[in-house]
Design brief:
Blueprint (H helix, E strand, L loop, with lengths): L1 H5 L6 H29 L20 E5 L5 E6 L15 H4 L21 E4 L6 E2 L2 H8 L17 E4 L4 E4 L19 E3 L4 E3 L6 E4 L4 E4 L7 E4 L4 E4 L30 E3 L5 E3 H9 L16 H13 L9 E7 L5 E5 L15 E8 L8
Parallel strand pairs: 1-6
Antiparallel strand pairs: 1-2, 3-4, 3-5, 5-6, 7-8, 9-10, 11-12, 13-14, 15-16, 15-17
Length: 370
């Protein structure tokens, strides 16, 4: 339905945005009501490791735990009956089952978001998720048990999907009998964000200033960190405009967070940022101004030249020849008085047609004709 509204040529961009936002609000409120109804009807709403309502009754094959001194020790194994398993976490069969990055093919371990051979254990609830985005997707499902957002920095334990060994977070499985034979869980591993990604074509680096992992080769190689914007900027961006904390805000189109977004971002000429997919949909509505500051999003000189030709080809009637418009240019930020024309009012300073009319005056009354 949103696609139909976005492609409707009869609606203006404002009407499209208002209608789409209203639909999203109604869906969100409907999901919220369903979620409250589901939670009210459930007899067990708290997720506990030994909860019978969640059927968490299956232990991992082995459990390695890190002591306060920093050493790692095997505290339980399924093959040794005498091992102490009173504190061993329990999981559902679905949590212990491997997931695959390539879906039905079942050749690459991971999830739709990342390729990896391990799962993260939620630091609060103890549940297993292939990645934090999988946890976020389950939180949006009202039919699933509600969990808190997965804090990537607080992850302490992971599960190897090859041997189902629960162990402290590390770059490779600690179990010597694992089928991985000492191979890493993924090509890239960040011990701060606990990000695992085995995509051979993806370049990832950890920015110590953003404190998150970014796509790219690294700071000083193809990116730099702008301290004023608090964002990583490409070294090829020679026309960078600083806006303090510009990634801390939400996307002006979908209102989702951009700082930790995995979607590609689009930086406008004015310095504002939005999701690339949102920018593409926004431009389909024939809007060429930033949704925040109303400056032109790109170089519009070719389009403004076409408007100059349209103004020359369509002279104003005699009644409007002495009409002057007071305008404010949204590109250069200056005001001026220019002849009024229904095609558009051109800024006297920068030549932009991205102007807003503030008022209209008649310099002299048109002379009567006999």
């Amino acid at each position: 339905l949103i696609r139909v509204i976005a492609s409707n040529q009869e609606l203006s961009s404002v009407e499209k945005n208002t209608t789409i936002q209203g639909l999203r609000d109604s869906v969100w409120k409907s999901n919220l009501r369903r979620r409250h109804n589901m939670l009210a009807s459930m007899t067990c709403t708290v997720i506990e490791p030994n909860s019978s309502c969640s059927s968490r009754n299956t232990p991992p094959s082995s459990y390695y735990k890190k002591s306060e001194e920093g050493s790692t020790k095997k505290v339980w194994t399924r093959n040794v009956p005498d091992s102490e398993g009173s504190t061993t976490p329990l999981f559902t069969a679905a949590e212990l089952a491997p997931t695959y990055h390539d879906g039905a093919n079942g050749g690459v371990l991971g999830c739709p978001h990342y390729s990896r051979s391990c799962k993260l254990r939620h630091p609060t609830s103890g549940r297993l998720y292939t990645c934090r985005l999988c946890c976020a997707q389950e939180r949006e499902n009202p039919l699933k048990e509600q969990d808190s957002p997965l804090d990537r920095y607080a992850v302490k334990e992971i599960l190897c999907m090859r041997c189902t060994t629960l162990q402290p977070a590390n770059e490779k499985c600690i179990n010597q009998a694992c089928d991985s034979k000492g191979a890493r869980f993924a090509k890239y591993y960040c011990q701060i964000c606990h990000l695992y990604d085995d995509d051979p074509e993806k370049q990832i680096y950890h920015c110590p200033f953003c404190n998150v992992c970014r796509s790219g080769r690294g700071l000083g190689i193809d990116y730099r960190h702008c301290m004023r914007c608090n964002a990583c900027v490409s070294l090829e961006d020679t026309d960078h405009h600083c806006i303090p904390q510009r990634l801390q805000a939400t996307c002006p189109i979908c209102h989702e967070s951009m700082f930790q977004s995995t979607e590609p971002l689009k930086g406008l000429k004015c310095g504002h940022v939005l999701h690339l997919s949102c920018f593409t949909r926004y431009m389909r509505g024939q809007s060429y101004t930033c949704p925040l500051c109303k400056k032109s999003v790109e170089d519009m000189r070719e389009y403004f030249t076409m408007l100059d030709a349209a103004v020359r080809m369509q002279p104003m009637p005699a009644a409007f020849l002495s009409t002057v418009s007071e305008i404010y240019c949204q590109d250069c930020g200056q005001s001026s008085k220019v002849p009024y024309h229904f095609v558009g009012c051109k800024c006297a300073h920068c030549g932009s047609y991205n102007t807003r009319e503030l008022g209209r005056t008649q310099l002299s009354a048109p002379s009567p004709t006999d």
